[in-house]
Design goal:
alpha+beta; eight-stranded mixed sheet; two-stranded antiparallel ribbon; 2 helices
Length: about 130
């Protein structure tokens, strides 16, 4: 639940004007092969044939949760969604939540955020990142 506390801190800093404005992500082309299973353990996830998936969880207070899974790793991000746009809060240093606190290198960070953007755009959303 630490991500909720971090997201709330970042949101408070944004409200004060301490955080840079959101960056709307460009459309991803070509979009990887994605699917959204209706049944089974992956129900509700956006799954890619390349071995990663994204789950959008409901609100916890005012923060939505976005779970990214890849090769046994799990990354949790927070943000807000509404009227066709998802705003995701991205810390300068991202760490995998499982295994615990392993930082993402620059290439992995770029790939993960690109995959997350592709999946959410495929679902019909515009995606913005708030860089904290």
């Amino acid at each position: 639940m630490g991500w909720i506390k971090d997201s709330m801190k970042t949101e408070a800093r944004y409200q004060r004007g301490d955080v840079r404005k959101s960056v709307l992500q460009p459309r991803i082309h070509p979009i990887p092969v994605l699917r959204k299973p209706w049944f089974g353990k992956n129900r509700g996830k956006i799954v890619c044939n390349e071995g990663w998936s994204v789950a959008i969880s409901g609100s916890s207070w005012r923060i939505d949760r976005y779970d990214y899974y890849e090769n046994g790793h799990h990354l949790i991000l927070g943000g807000e969604s509404g009227s066709g746009t998802i705003d995701i809060i991205v810390d300068p240093v991202l760490n995998w939540d499982e295994p615990q606190n392993i930082p993402l290198d620059d290439a992995t960070r770029k790939r993960v955020l690109n995959n997350l953007t592709a999946a959410l755009q495929w679902s019909g959303y515009n995606v913005s990142f708030f860089m904290s």
